Amino acid sequence: MKVTEEIFKKAEKEGSAREFLFALLKEMKGGNLSRRDFKTLNHEEIILRIVKENNLEPYFSLSGSKNIYNALRKAFRSYFRAKVEKEWTHKIENWRKELEVLLSKAIADYLVEAGSVSRVRQLVTLGWIVLPYAVKAYRGGRPFDSFKDFLKEHYLRERFNSYRNLGFLTFRYHILEEILQTFFSGFLELSIYGLFVQIEGVVWEIFVKNNPLELDIESLIRKRNRKFITIQYALKLITENLTGDGRVPQVFDWVKFVDFEDDGRLNRNAVMHGISVKFGSKENFLRLFLLFDFLVYIGSCLQNGCCTK
Protein backbone atom coordinates (compact mmCIF):
# COMPACT_ATOMS: atom_id res chain seq x y z
CA MET A 1 0.00 0.00 0.00
CA LYS A 2 2.64 2.46 -1.09
CA VAL A 3 1.51 6.09 -1.24
CA THR A 4 3.26 8.42 -3.68
CA GLU A 5 3.46 12.15 -3.13
CA GLU A 6 1.09 12.64 -6.07
CA ILE A 7 -1.53 10.37 -4.47
CA PHE A 8 -1.09 12.14 -1.13
CA LYS A 9 -1.58 15.58 -2.67
CA LYS A 10 -4.83 14.50 -4.34
CA ALA A 11 -6.18 13.00 -1.11
CA GLU A 12 -4.99 16.01 0.89
CA LYS A 13 -7.62 18.15 -0.84
CA GLU A 14 -10.33 16.49 1.24
CA GLY A 15 -11.66 18.42 4.22
CA SER A 16 -12.02 15.78 6.91
CA ALA A 17 -9.35 13.29 7.93
CA ARG A 18 -11.73 10.35 7.41
CA GLU A 19 -12.47 11.53 3.87
CA PHE A 20 -8.72 11.83 3.42
CA LEU A 21 -8.35 8.08 4.05
CA PHE A 22 -11.19 7.31 1.63
CA ALA A 23 -9.60 9.46 -1.09
CA LEU A 24 -6.21 7.87 -0.39
CA LEU A 25 -7.52 4.32 -0.80
CA LYS A 26 -9.59 5.26 -3.83
CA GLU A 27 -6.55 6.77 -5.56
CA MET A 28 -4.48 3.67 -4.80
CA LYS A 29 -7.20 1.46 -6.29
CA GLY A 30 -7.44 3.58 -9.41
CA GLY A 31 -10.82 5.00 -8.45
CA ASN A 32 -12.42 1.57 -7.88
CA LEU A 33 -13.65 1.96 -4.31
CA SER A 34 -17.24 2.65 -3.36
CA ARG A 35 -18.33 4.23 -0.12
CA ARG A 36 -20.16 1.04 0.80
CA ASP A 37 -16.94 -0.97 0.43
CA PHE A 38 -15.04 1.69 2.37
CA LYS A 39 -17.45 1.34 5.33
CA THR A 40 -16.91 -2.41 5.49
CA LEU A 41 -13.13 -2.10 5.85
CA ASN A 42 -11.29 -2.26 9.16
CA HIS A 43 -9.96 1.30 9.07
CA GLU A 44 -7.65 0.92 12.06
CA GLU A 45 -5.98 -2.15 10.59
CA ILE A 46 -5.58 -0.47 7.18
CA ILE A 47 -4.12 2.70 8.66
CA LEU A 48 -1.52 0.77 10.66
CA ARG A 49 -0.64 -1.22 7.54
CA ILE A 50 -0.20 1.99 5.55
CA VAL A 51 2.04 3.36 8.31
CA LYS A 52 4.24 0.25 8.20
CA GLU A 53 4.48 -0.05 4.41
CA ASN A 54 5.32 3.66 3.97
CA ASN A 55 7.86 3.83 6.83
CA LEU A 56 5.78 6.43 8.67
CA GLU A 57 6.61 5.14 12.17
CA PRO A 58 8.85 8.13 13.06
CA TYR A 59 6.01 10.51 12.16
CA PHE A 60 2.89 8.64 13.31
CA SER A 61 1.55 9.63 16.73
CA LEU A 62 -1.87 9.84 18.34
CA SER A 63 -0.61 12.64 20.56
CA GLY A 64 -2.16 15.92 19.49
CA SER A 65 -4.41 14.18 16.94
CA LYS A 66 -8.20 14.09 17.16
CA ASN A 67 -8.34 10.52 15.88
CA ILE A 68 -6.36 7.87 14.04
CA TYR A 69 -7.35 9.32 10.65
CA ASN A 70 -5.93 12.67 11.62
CA ALA A 71 -2.75 10.99 12.93
CA LEU A 72 -2.23 9.32 9.54
CA ARG A 73 -2.73 12.57 7.67
CA LYS A 74 -0.28 14.43 9.91
CA ALA A 75 2.25 11.60 9.54
CA PHE A 76 2.19 11.89 5.74
CA ARG A 77 2.52 15.67 5.96
CA SER A 78 5.60 15.35 8.17
CA TYR A 79 7.07 12.58 6.01
CA PHE A 80 6.86 14.49 2.73
CA ARG A 81 7.98 17.72 4.39
CA ALA A 82 11.06 15.92 5.74
CA LYS A 83 11.87 14.69 2.21
CA VAL A 84 11.68 18.24 0.89
CA GLU A 85 13.83 19.54 3.77
CA LYS A 86 16.47 16.91 3.03
CA GLU A 87 16.42 17.72 -0.70
CA TRP A 88 16.53 21.45 0.08
CA THR A 89 19.49 21.11 2.45
CA HIS A 90 21.49 19.08 -0.07
CA LYS A 91 20.79 21.46 -2.96
CA ILE A 92 21.37 24.61 -0.92
CA GLU A 93 24.72 23.31 0.39
CA ASN A 94 25.92 22.65 -3.16
CA TRP A 95 24.36 25.84 -4.49
CA ARG A 96 25.97 28.00 -1.81
CA LYS A 97 29.42 26.49 -2.31
CA GLU A 98 29.36 26.97 -6.06
CA LEU A 99 27.85 30.42 -5.81
CA GLU A 100 30.42 31.54 -3.25
CA VAL A 101 33.25 30.35 -5.50
CA LEU A 102 31.90 32.36 -8.44
CA LEU A 103 31.16 35.36 -6.24
CA SER A 104 34.66 35.28 -4.76
CA LYS A 105 36.15 35.32 -8.25
CA ALA A 106 33.90 38.23 -9.30
CA ILE A 107 34.89 40.19 -6.19
CA ALA A 108 38.58 39.42 -6.77
CA ASP A 109 38.30 40.81 -10.31
CA TYR A 110 36.51 43.82 -8.87
CA LEU A 111 39.21 44.51 -6.25
CA VAL A 112 41.97 44.23 -8.84
CA GLU A 113 40.18 46.69 -11.09
CA ALA A 114 39.41 49.03 -8.17
CA GLY A 115 43.12 49.11 -7.31
CA SER A 116 42.72 49.65 -3.57
CA VAL A 117 41.39 47.20 -1.00
CA SER A 118 41.69 49.72 1.82
CA ARG A 119 39.64 52.31 -0.06
CA VAL A 120 36.94 49.73 -0.86
CA ARG A 121 36.77 48.71 2.80
CA GLN A 122 36.55 52.30 3.94
CA LEU A 123 33.67 52.98 1.56
CA VAL A 124 31.78 49.83 2.61
CA THR A 125 32.21 50.85 6.25
CA LEU A 126 30.63 54.20 5.38
CA GLY A 127 27.73 52.39 3.69
CA TRP A 128 28.77 52.87 0.04
CA ILE A 129 29.19 49.81 -2.22
CA VAL A 130 30.37 51.16 -5.55
CA LEU A 131 32.03 50.17 -8.82
CA PRO A 132 35.79 50.57 -9.48
CA TYR A 133 35.29 53.89 -11.30
CA ALA A 134 33.80 55.36 -8.10
CA VAL A 135 36.45 53.76 -5.86
CA LYS A 136 39.12 55.48 -7.95
CA ALA A 137 37.30 58.81 -7.68
CA TYR A 138 37.11 58.67 -3.89
CA ARG A 139 39.53 61.03 -2.16
CA GLY A 140 38.57 60.39 1.47
CA GLY A 141 36.11 62.12 3.73
CA ARG A 142 32.41 62.24 2.88
CA PRO A 143 31.83 59.97 -0.14
CA PHE A 144 29.10 62.16 -1.61
CA ASP A 145 31.59 65.00 -2.07
CA SER A 146 33.71 62.74 -4.31
CA PHE A 147 30.76 61.18 -6.15
CA LYS A 148 28.32 64.04 -6.76
CA ASP A 149 29.57 64.53 -10.34
CA PHE A 150 28.03 61.12 -11.11
CA LEU A 151 24.62 62.77 -10.76
CA LYS A 152 25.10 64.85 -13.90
CA GLU A 153 22.47 64.07 -16.50
CA HIS A 154 24.81 63.06 -19.32
CA TYR A 155 26.63 60.64 -17.03
CA LEU A 156 23.51 58.99 -15.61
CA ARG A 157 22.00 58.62 -19.08
CA GLU A 158 25.21 56.99 -20.29
CA ARG A 159 25.19 54.48 -17.44
CA PHE A 160 21.50 53.67 -17.83
CA ASN A 161 21.92 53.26 -21.60
CA SER A 162 24.61 50.67 -20.95
CA TYR A 163 21.97 48.45 -19.29
CA ARG A 164 20.13 48.00 -22.60
CA ASN A 165 22.57 45.30 -23.71
CA LEU A 166 22.29 43.18 -20.57
CA GLY A 167 19.88 40.27 -20.95
CA PHE A 168 18.82 40.15 -17.32
CA LEU A 169 17.79 43.84 -17.44
CA THR A 170 16.07 43.93 -20.83
CA PHE A 171 12.49 43.41 -19.68
CA ARG A 172 12.79 45.89 -16.81
CA TYR A 173 14.67 48.57 -18.75
CA HIS A 174 11.55 50.69 -19.33
CA ILE A 175 11.11 50.93 -15.54
CA LEU A 176 14.71 52.04 -15.12
CA GLU A 177 14.16 54.77 -17.72
CA GLU A 178 11.10 55.95 -15.81
CA ILE A 179 13.07 56.03 -12.55
CA LEU A 180 15.74 58.16 -14.21
CA GLN A 181 13.17 60.55 -15.66
CA THR A 182 11.49 60.81 -12.26
CA PHE A 183 14.82 61.81 -10.72
CA PHE A 184 15.46 64.47 -13.39
CA SER A 185 11.96 65.83 -12.78
CA GLY A 186 12.84 66.42 -9.13
CA PHE A 187 10.71 63.67 -7.57
CA LEU A 188 13.49 62.31 -5.37
CA GLU A 189 11.33 60.20 -3.07
CA LEU A 190 9.64 58.40 -5.97
CA SER A 191 12.94 57.73 -7.73
CA ILE A 192 14.35 56.26 -4.50
CA TYR A 193 11.27 54.06 -4.05
CA GLY A 194 11.79 52.79 -7.58
CA LEU A 195 15.49 52.05 -7.09
CA PHE A 196 14.86 50.09 -3.89
CA VAL A 197 12.44 47.82 -5.74
CA GLN A 198 14.69 47.38 -8.79
CA ILE A 199 17.71 46.56 -6.63
CA GLU A 200 15.76 43.69 -5.09
CA GLY A 201 14.57 42.68 -8.57
CA VAL A 202 18.15 42.49 -9.84
CA VAL A 203 19.17 40.39 -6.82
CA TRP A 204 16.32 38.01 -7.67
CA GLU A 205 17.41 37.89 -11.31
CA ILE A 206 21.09 37.17 -10.68
CA PHE A 207 20.89 34.98 -7.58
CA VAL A 208 17.72 32.97 -8.21
CA LYS A 209 15.60 33.28 -11.35
CA ASN A 210 18.36 32.83 -13.93
CA ASN A 211 20.83 31.13 -11.65
CA PRO A 212 22.87 28.81 -13.92
CA LEU A 213 23.94 26.64 -10.96
CA GLU A 214 20.53 25.40 -9.82
CA LEU A 215 17.77 26.07 -12.30
CA ASP A 216 15.20 24.32 -10.09
CA ILE A 217 15.99 26.32 -6.96
CA GLU A 218 12.95 28.55 -7.49
CA SER A 219 10.53 25.62 -7.61
CA LEU A 220 12.17 24.18 -4.52
CA ILE A 221 11.65 27.49 -2.70
CA ARG A 222 7.97 27.43 -3.66
CA LYS A 223 7.71 23.81 -2.53
CA ARG A 224 8.90 24.80 0.93
CA ASN A 225 6.66 27.86 0.92
CA ARG A 226 9.39 30.21 2.04
CA LYS A 227 11.88 32.69 0.63
CA PHE A 228 15.60 32.07 0.55
CA ILE A 229 17.40 34.76 -1.36
CA THR A 230 16.95 38.24 0.06
CA ILE A 231 18.79 41.48 -0.56
CA GLN A 232 20.18 41.18 2.98
CA TYR A 233 21.61 37.71 2.31
CA ALA A 234 23.12 38.77 -1.02
CA LEU A 235 24.77 41.86 0.49
CA LYS A 236 26.05 39.82 3.42
CA LEU A 237 27.81 37.46 0.99
CA ILE A 238 29.22 40.42 -0.92
CA THR A 239 30.52 42.32 2.11
CA GLU A 240 32.10 39.14 3.46
CA ASN A 241 34.15 38.99 0.26
CA LEU A 242 34.88 42.72 0.23
CA THR A 243 35.87 43.28 3.84
CA GLY A 244 35.89 39.93 5.63
CA ASP A 245 33.05 41.26 7.80
CA GLY A 246 29.63 40.09 6.64
CA ARG A 247 27.63 42.95 8.05
CA VAL A 248 24.57 44.04 6.12
CA PRO A 249 24.93 47.72 5.12
CA GLN A 250 22.79 49.99 7.31
CA VAL A 251 20.70 51.02 4.29
CA PHE A 252 19.36 47.45 4.03
CA ASP A 253 19.68 46.30 7.63
CA TRP A 254 16.62 45.57 9.76
CA VAL A 255 15.57 48.40 12.07
CA LYS A 256 13.19 48.57 14.98
CA PHE A 257 10.63 51.11 13.82
CA VAL A 258 9.91 52.58 17.26
CA ASP A 259 13.61 53.37 17.65
CA PHE A 260 14.13 54.69 14.12
CA GLU A 261 15.17 58.34 13.96
CA ASP A 262 13.85 59.96 10.79
CA ASP A 263 16.67 62.42 10.25
CA GLY A 264 17.28 61.88 6.54
CA ARG A 265 19.18 58.63 6.88
CA LEU A 266 18.29 55.94 4.36
CA ASN A 267 16.90 52.56 5.41
CA ARG A 268 14.99 50.23 3.15
CA ASN A 269 12.53 48.90 5.76
CA ALA A 270 11.72 52.33 7.15
CA VAL A 271 11.21 53.80 3.67
CA MET A 272 9.19 50.96 2.15
CA HIS A 273 6.95 50.63 5.21
CA GLY A 274 6.24 54.36 5.32
CA ILE A 275 8.05 55.01 8.61
CA SER A 276 10.59 57.37 7.03
CA VAL A 277 9.49 60.48 5.11
CA LYS A 278 12.68 62.56 5.14
CA PHE A 279 14.80 60.38 2.87
CA GLY A 280 14.39 62.37 -0.35
CA SER A 281 17.89 63.64 -1.10
CA LYS A 282 20.28 63.46 -4.04
CA GLU A 283 22.84 61.80 -1.81
CA ASN A 284 20.45 58.96 -0.98
CA PHE A 285 19.53 58.52 -4.63
CA LEU A 286 23.20 58.39 -5.60
CA ARG A 287 24.00 55.86 -2.87
CA LEU A 288 21.30 53.54 -4.24
CA PHE A 289 22.20 54.11 -7.88
CA LEU A 290 25.87 53.24 -7.26
CA LEU A 291 24.80 50.08 -5.40
CA PHE A 292 22.48 49.17 -8.28
CA ASP A 293 25.35 49.73 -10.73
CA PHE A 294 27.57 47.49 -8.60
CA LEU A 295 24.99 44.68 -8.52
CA VAL A 296 24.62 44.89 -12.30
CA TYR A 297 28.40 44.45 -12.51
CA ILE A 298 28.29 41.39 -10.24
CA GLY A 299 25.33 40.01 -12.16
CA SER A 300 27.19 40.21 -15.45
CA CYS A 301 30.17 38.45 -13.83
CA LEU A 302 28.06 35.58 -12.48
CA GLN A 303 25.92 35.06 -15.57
CA ASN A 304 28.27 35.82 -18.43
CA GLY A 305 31.64 34.97 -16.94
CA CYS A 306 32.88 38.51 -17.48
CA CYS A 307 32.12 41.82 -15.81
CA THR A 308 30.47 44.82 -17.41
CA LYS A 309 32.59 47.92 -16.96
Describe the secondary-structure layout.
Elements lengths: L4 H7 L5 H12 L6 H6 L2 H11 L14 H47 L2 H9 L6 H6 L5 H5 L5 H10 L10 H12 L3 H22 L7 H8 L6 H13 L24 H5 L9 H23 L5
Helix pairs in contact: 1-2, 2-5, 5-12, 5-13, 9-10, 10-11, 11-15
Written description of the protein model:
The chain is mostly helical. The protein has helices at residues 5-11, 17-28, 35-40, 43-53, 68-114, 117-125, 132-137, 143-147, 153-162, 173-184, 188-209, 217-224, 231-243, 268-272, 282-304.
Helix content: 55-70%
Kindly state the number of beta strands.
0
Q: Which percent range describes the beta-strand content?
A: under 5%
Structural class: mainly alpha
Secondary-structure element order, N to C: HHHHHHHHHHHHHHH
Outline the biggest β-sheet: none
Summarize this structure briefly.
With 309 residues, the protein is mainly alpha-helical. It contains 15 helices and no strands.
Key terms:
309 residues, 0% strand
